[in-house]
Automatic annotation (TrEMBL):
Biological process terms in GO annotation: DNA transposition
PANTHER family, per the entry: INSERTION ELEMENT IS1 1 PROTEIN INSB-RELATED
Keywords per UniProt: DNA recombination, Transposition
Keyword DNA-binding carried by entry: no
Name of this chain's protein: IS1 transposase
Domain of life: Bacteria
Organism: Providencia rettgeri
């Protein structure tokens, strides 16, 4: 993980994350099919559970180890 943004899954949050990540040479993006991710370039954007399963597992591990990241609902 190189960067993260805490907030809603809005276009504004994604733009903030993309500003942080613009410093790095990102080769490909793995996301679910959420509308805000349409800002990503199609040629480097992979959509689907197959690609995001590892990311979700890492988020689960972080939530278990860092209690401030726990969901409130």
């Amino acid at each position: 993980m190189v960067a993260h943004v805490l907030g809603s899954r809005s276009r504004k949050s994604q733009q903030k994350l993309l500003r942080w990540l613009s410093k790095f040479d990102i080769q490909f993006w793995c996301t679910d099919n959420y509308l805000a991710y349409q800002l990503l370039p199609r040629e480097t954007h992979s959509i689907g559970k197959r690609f995001t399963q590892g990311i979700k597992h890492q988020n689960l591990n972080l939530r278990n180890k860092i209690k401030r990241l726990n969901r409130k609902t």
